Amino acid sequence: MSFGPDSRGVLVALKRFGLGPKPGDLSAAAADPRGFILAETQQAGVALLEKPQLAKSSAALQALFADQQNKRAERERTLAQGMASAAQAGLAGSVMAAAPPQMPVTAAIGPDGKPKPQEPTVEQRLFRAEAMARYEKQAAASAGFVERLVAFWSNHFAVSVAKDQFVRVAAGPYEREAIRPYVLGKFADMLKAVESHPAMLFYLDNQRSSGPNSAAGRFAGKGLNENLAREILELHTLGAEGGYSQDDVTALARILTGWSIAQAESEVGTPGAFLFKSNWHEPGAQILLGETYAQTGVRQGEAALADIARHPSTATHIATKLVRHFIADDPPPGMIAKLAKVFRDTDGDLHAVTVALAGDDEAWRLPMTKIRTPNEFLIAAMRATGNLPAEPGPILNMSNALGMPLWQPPGPNGFADTQAAWATPESMKLRLDVAAQLAQRAKDVEHPLGVLDSIAGPEASTETRETVSRAESRQQALAIIFMSPEFQRR
Amino acid sequence: MALPVKTATLSRRALLAAAGSSCALGFLPKTASARSGSDPRFVVIILRGALDGLSAVAPVGDPDYAALHGAIALPPAGEHAALPLDGFFGLHPSMPVFARLYKENRASVIHAVATSYRERSHFDGQDVLESGYPGPGHTESGWLNRAIFALPGSETSRLRGLGVGATAPLVIRGRAPVLGWAPQILPAASDDLAMRVLDLYQHRDAALAAALRIGLETDEMAARGGLSGDMAKARGGMDQPNGMRQAARGAARLLATDDGPRVAALAFDGWDMHANEGGATGQLATRLSGLDGAFEELEMGLGEHWRDTAVLAVTEFGRTARINGTGGSDHGTGAAAFLVGGAVKGGRVIADWPGLKPNQLYQGRDLAPTADLRAVMKGLLADLFRLFPSTLGDKVFPDSAAVQPMPGLLAG
User: A-B interface: how many C-beta pairs under 8 angstroms?
Assistant: First the structure.
């Protein structure tokens, strides 16, 4: 088997930058590994994910609102019926306490007398459709470099579905609306799309934040919530060491008051969409990072975000995270400096930054010491064998088991991006179990050594090749391939 | 989210390693302990979603309770009555194990207690509860991990933390190494496959070899404790009684192992009940029976070590004193915490009861907190592991020097 003069470069392209080789990918990329991944970034709309069955965030949230409304009405009806029948039977209130009305069990038995499978809730249905579309796109991508960028930015601007059903419903649309259109565009545009998206506003409580001197603030006695403002500065842009103070956090929080979401019953705006509530907005000019923002209304926040996006600390913070993600847990300072300069010189043009990252000779020279995240591991296995399940349940379950539930990081800082976090004893043991499962599920697998060739080519070690060839079964051989350092590392 | 104490902690550990002794800042030598000679176990159970403390441990003697809790209030007498604790408080009838331990002076309740968090987001509330920081936004490490890490290196490695579940709860995550165990969601890979992969790693990848070896050893430890095959298969989610029992059984087996962990964290879900909470029966009753079952599993599984064990079950905040229009309760403030174990000085409801009159409620709606949950946690850590108040007020619970450890929670 021949992969051209640069068999290692092919693997760097498909593993360090991509989502792992599909059968035939090594040959396809052999002539020009760098060109192979850069070509992917040139395809028009390559990062977008739009399908008829995927709803816009406002439509998805409206479906959730309607469902919540129905359930509330149902509960009230049941409660009223319960009270009425209790009164009829002449029972006192204390007996009610002992036997509270339960939700009626509707249609648990089908017409054939068998228990019907439980209907998924609105939020489960929407979430699963989004999950499946994401997995399909990752599994089918040519190199997967752009999908890696999507996952990187989605994790950089993390929201968690553990917050509430609201985020569970909005997380998929959020990634499609606020992340994907901009991964090869301008950082400033992504920042604005993210911080004004209902998923982020809800996740970090900005819809509850009101200016102390705003009409709503004075009336309701509510106040400022600094959650979003703090995470914008600490996580999304400047970074914890980026040179801002608590006063800056408070100033940005004031600037962003009124950035909110139109509720179900809202008379203005589209329910489930961004809504600027001017009567919640703190009036007056604000000083942020030494700049005075005298604009009024939503323009004040837009101006502030545009400036933070091009702050030198932001360039360094983003460059550091990109190099850590793609190259090494301890990112080489030289690479960070080069990338940060491109970020600054191009005013945060992420296509230029991406090209610079993939064009850096260091990136092709340094050893592949990173470990795949659980999601990358699962997708790489699906790509290697071409076995994507018909529904997302199995992948979601394996992701949960491996500690990386989809769109559910432990905090707004997203999932960790180091070997220390992912190659723990418990998670390596779980990866082994998952590898065995994946191997069991894989159908129509050709000779295991053929799979090894298609994922590692001539770069597979002698030991791995021998361990695979001595396996007692085809399934065991495949599990060993999935667990091999060649497959785990990128 | 850098750890603010990173440098200081590192240099102190280096110092300890050099000194090779336990005479260090923040830690009393073992002989100074009132509980010397014991090998204590500490289990923390996080109840996610905000447990309704006024239903779990009902102030049946408070003249305002029945009206506020309305249809779901527990009656002081009758068929579905609260189990009597001290005449004023009654325990939810779905917790007979806790009631027995209370009678045996091995269980206490701490009531009208709260963290420093005064907003009403579960997510932030849990971060504060688990991180031990005064405010939200710290998700790098938890107070239990930092307590282990604050001990001398030899103690840190001997005590070892255990996180139960696919992801360890934040409270036990951090820089001190932590073992993980989860009821098996997927069938386990065969030993044969495990050995082949481990052998390959030993030739090709030392870091992966080290991690996988420890992972397999933990599994083996669990199997020696009787947790293998069918017993290790997931029985239900962490919001189901079977799942809670099973997680506790697993933790107990590992904690009881001689070379096993000494400190464990579990998280049980599903306490957020805005509707149809239920009184003596219903959703809350189901969850509480799971928690009660978990206490029983810990007691049985720890065997002779139960006498050296303290188990603390805590939630991020309480719920509204008045039930809402849908038979549930909304996010509140003052909560109840459970403390059980052979090491506990029990038979008490520890509370500076604030009352439930409108002007006594926090913001006119919630049970007012009169105790700081960190005082409870500090009191336990001080007595179990002899951590100094200064360490507890700085490294373990940052910026909390003013919160004094609650004394006398454990039997002397």
Answer: 187
Query: What residue type is assigned to position A83 of the chain?
Result: M
User: A461 vs B74: CB contact, 8 Å cut-off?
Assistant: no
Asked, for residue A457, whether it belongs to a domain, the answer is no
Contacts of B205 in chain A (CB under 8 A): 485, 488-489
Six-digit token string for A141: 């991508």
User: Residue B327: CB partners within 8 Å, gap ≥ 6?
Assistant: A75, A79, A100, A101, B71, B72, B275, B276, B277, B278
ipTM score of complex:
0.89
| Average pLDDT score over residue span B311-331 | 92
- Distance CA(B231)–CA(B247), nearest Å, equals 11
Which residues are CB-neighbours of B53 under 8 A, at least 6 positions away?
B111, B112, B315, B318, B319, B334, B335, B336, B367
CB-nearest partner of A75 from B173, B213, B326: B326
Buried b (16+ CB within 10 A) or exposed e, A389-407: eeebebbbebbbbbbbbbb
3-state secondary structure of B260: coil
| CA angle, residues A140, A141, A145, in degrees to nearest 5 | 150
Portion 272-301 of A in contact with B at CB < 8 A: none
Q: Where are the alpha helices (DSSP H) in A269-349?
A: 298-309, 312-326, 333-345
Instruction: Report if residue A381 sits inside a domain.
Output: no
d(CA A406, CA A188): 26
A401 shares contact with chain B (CB less than 8 Å)? yes
* Among A436, A476, A480, beta carbon nearest to B200: A480
Q: Going from the N-terminus, what domains does chain B have, and what CATH number goes with each?
A: 37-181+261-396 (3.40.720)
Output the DSSP codes for B81-124.
PPEESSSS-EE-TT-HHHHHHHHTT-EEEEEEEE-S--S--HHH
3-state secondary structure of B383: helix
Q: Between chains, do A428 and B212 touch, taking CB under 8 Å as contact?
A: yes
B5 contact partners, CB below 8 Å, separation of at least 6: B394, B395, B398
pLDDT given for residue B25 in this prediction: 40
pTM: 0.76
Tell me: pLDDT of B13 over 60: no
Helices A57-88 and A122-140: angle between axes, nearest 10 degrees: 150
CA-nearest residue to A465 within chain B is: B200
Inter-chain touch B207–A464, beta carbons under 8 Å: no
Range of the domain at A319: 312-365
HSE at residue A431, side-chain half, CA atoms within 13 A, is 33
Q: Mind telling me how many Å the CA of A35 is from chain B's nearest CA?
A: 31
DSSP string, A171-186: HHHHIIIIIGGGTTSB
Indicate whether B239 pLDDT > 80.
yes
d(CA B174, CA A487): 28
Q: Which residues of chain A have pLDDT under 70?
A: 1-5, 82-83, 85-117, 220-222
| H-type alpha helices, A407-461 | 419-422, 425-441, 448-456
CA A334, distance to chain mean position in Å, is 28
Round to whole Å and give the CA distance between B411 and B78: 34
Q: Which amino acid is at A313?
A: S
- Return the DSSP state at A56: P
- Residues of chain B neighbouring A235 (CB-CB closer than 8 A): 1
Dist CA A159 CA A200 (whole Å): 6
Tell me, yes or no, whether A58 lies in a domain.
no
CA B243 → CA B179, B184, B240, B250, distances in Å?
20, 11, 5, 11
Q: Which chain B residue's Cα is nearest to A397? A: B185
In a domain, A398, yes or no: no
Number of domains in chain A: 1
